[in-house]
Amino acid sequence: MSTTISTGNDGLDVILKGGLSSRRLYLLEGAPGSGKTTLALQFLREGVRRGEKALYITLSETAEELSAVAASHGWDSGEFDVFEFSSAAEVFGDGRDQSILHPWEMELGETIRLIQDEVERVRPKRVVFDSLSEMRLLAQDPLRYRRQVLALKQFFSGRDTTVILVDDMTGSHDGRDAHLHSLCHGVITLERLTLDFGAARRRMQVQKLRGIDFIAGYHDFTIRTGGLEIYPRLIAASHHAEFSGDITPSGIVELDNLLGGGPLRGTSTLLSGPAGSGKTTIALQYLFAACERGEPCTVYEFDERLGTLLVRAKAFGFDLLPHIENGTLVVEQIDPAEISPGEFATRVRIEVERRGARMIVIDSLNGYLAAMPQEQQLILQMHELLSYLSQKGVVTFLINPQNGLVGSMSTNLNISYVADSVVLLRFFEAEGRVRKAISVLKNRGGAHEDTIRELRIDSGGIRIGEPLSQFRGILTGTPEYLGARDPLMEDRDSDT
User: What is the rounded distance in angstroms from the CA atom of residue 374 to the CA atom of residue 218?
Assistant: First the structure.
């Protein structure tokens, strides 16, 4: 009877909802460079850690090459048995001066016999066979190759052994071997995608797995020192936590009143407007207030450098450095060219689940968009991420820069329908000065003001003025103020 065993990779175990069924034959396929050998080594090392015998059978790599791969991750290939065919000449030794015998010089039937003899000798619990492409070369005939793979499966079927067959997907014109898929109990596919700019993206999926309810779809992963780091696709519905929908104030009554008292726990607020209109500063106001209350917060900074952010925040009266030093605030600098959406979602989960973050700021969505070429997928992933944060009771602020400064403006990402609240900022001209206007377009969390107010941001912080009722064209992107001067805010008097 089979039991569930760990693959040695935490992310893959999550996707498989525990691991692989033991005593079965699995296929690990992927193009060269996709990470197959590294994942296979993790599988064997997990067996060794559990006190099991492990065997790596290699036709494609020498033991020296395998040792180099293991050493690059800080591992020792001597932890498990390695059987390479280049050193199997002694099996045929009859006194002839022959020190090496390459796989393509051997009869396929003899190759299979050698494998079986080595398995009988070692009696491993875990076996990796790398790779099937060499078996195809030896067989030359597709029917003979399939018979031998079937013979291997039958040989292992009566043993307490879990086997992973590695395939580099060179066996057919489309890279898929349907017959091989049908023979194996499960199929795991690794992919490597080369983008126009930035690091190569890698993703994996479980093609099939008999008897296990796995998480389907693509999952991003990276290869780091220490093995594959797989980021299971986020499914928000499975992460619900109880929380109270309290209001989170900013400390500025006029600003909170625009949103009916402030954002509620578990809601997301989209701050949209042109560059320099005050989007990030408003988000920092709420963030600073939360830090002052002792709530863990996290900022994901795609656009601005940390040093610039701290200097700018301090100029507006938010000294964030003490909160960073005491661990209340974490600011993560994100390079869009080096991160996948799956990795980003995992980072957010770690902050929420391990550090207990109560407020998240993503600055900005343009940077997040740059991390993923397909916009439709981006919207779906952002929707799932915001749903997850909502389930966890986290307050989220999304900074959405719009193209242009004045006139009709557009955005690269139409994500306003996903957010619970939308705050719109605009420039307008009055009394010979460029001024800023703020208004709330929607608020699912409750009532909100439908007025347009002036916004002032200076060394004294954020100020919200009286309603500007004599406005025309605010939603067209070219606001025009036709009212009297009285409601307009001027610079603070140093004597008041």
Answer: 14
Strand spans (E) along 143-265: 162-167, 186-193, 201-209, 219-224, 227-231
> In Å, what is the CA distance from 460 to each residue of 315, 377, 456, 492?
9, 42, 9, 8
Domain that holds residue 364: 238-481
CA 386 to chain centre: 14
- Total of domains in the chain: 2
pLDDT, tens digit (0-9, with 9 covering 90-100), for 464-483? 998 887 777 666 666 677 77
Average pLDDT over residues 312-329: 94
Run of H or E residues at 376: helix 375-391
Q: State the pLDDT at residue 238.
A: 85
> What's the token pair of residue 449?
């003001």
Alpha-carbon distances of 263 from 211, 245, 267, 328, rounded to whole Å: 45, 9, 7, 20
Looking at the structure, do residues 315 and 176 belong to the same domain, yes or no?
Answer: no
In a domain, 495, yes or no: no
Q: Which amino acid is at 88?
A: A
Give the predicted TM-score (pTM) of the model.
Answer: 0.86
What are the phi and psi torsion angles at 470 (to 5°)?
Answer: -95, 55
**Helix or strand or coil: residue 142?**
helix
pLDDT tens digit sequence for 25-35: 999 999 988 99
Q: pLDDT of 294-310, one tens digit each?
A: 999 999 999 888 899 99
In a domain, 98, yes or no: yes
